[in-house]
Write a structure and sequence with these properties.
It contains one helix and six strands; from the N terminus they run ββββαββ.
């Protein structure tokens, strides 16, 4: 943490159910903790996702510290936090790309 922001490193995963590889070109998403917007994520890249597999890549998110501290008390009381990412991505192959919306959520246990 430094100043008014904190950086969290994590791993994102994408599943490609197709029997051919696809290319991920862009991700544009909002990140929520317990239904409260904590940051915006934007990735402009070109990544090939192999066929019929889950592809993992490391990334980082910058958060405003005040937003995190607003969620801390609630997270400690419930001992879990609901993380949600809503956005859109551009995927395709052979030079043809389409925009695909996504909405992914998971509950993350907090160990004290």
């Amino acid at each position: 943490m430094s100043g008014d922001s904190a950086t969290v490193f994590g791993t994102l995963s994408f599943f490609n159910p197709n029997n051919y590889s696809i290319q991920l070109r862009k991700i544009d998403a909002d990140v929520f903790a317990n239904s409260q917007l904590v940051t915006h994520y934007n990735l402009d890249t070109f990544i090939t996702i192999p066929a019929d597999t889950t592809f993992l890549f490391s990334t980082y998110l910058k958060f405003n510290r005040s937003v995190i501290f607003n969620n801390v008390l609630d997270a400690f009381i419930k001992k879990e936090v609901l993380l949600q990412i809503k956005g859109k991505t551009r995927i395709g192959r052979s030079g043809i790309f389409v925009q695909v919306p996504f909405d992914v959520s998971t509950k993350q246990a907090i160990k004290l």
